[in-house]
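#structure-requests
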Amino acid sequence: MSFSRRSTRRSPYALMKLVAVTLLLGAGIGGGVFLALALIWHSLWGKGPVFLPG
């Protein structure tokens, strides 16, 4: 049984695409969690935290 020693090289474009998708997904999830926490804060204490307008 012989294994071929072929190197698997990924293109830089694929790596950049993976990084971009990861960053966008993280920003979207983080923004959603932040908005949910801000809405919960507003419903409990009736006003937004200092860093939110209003």
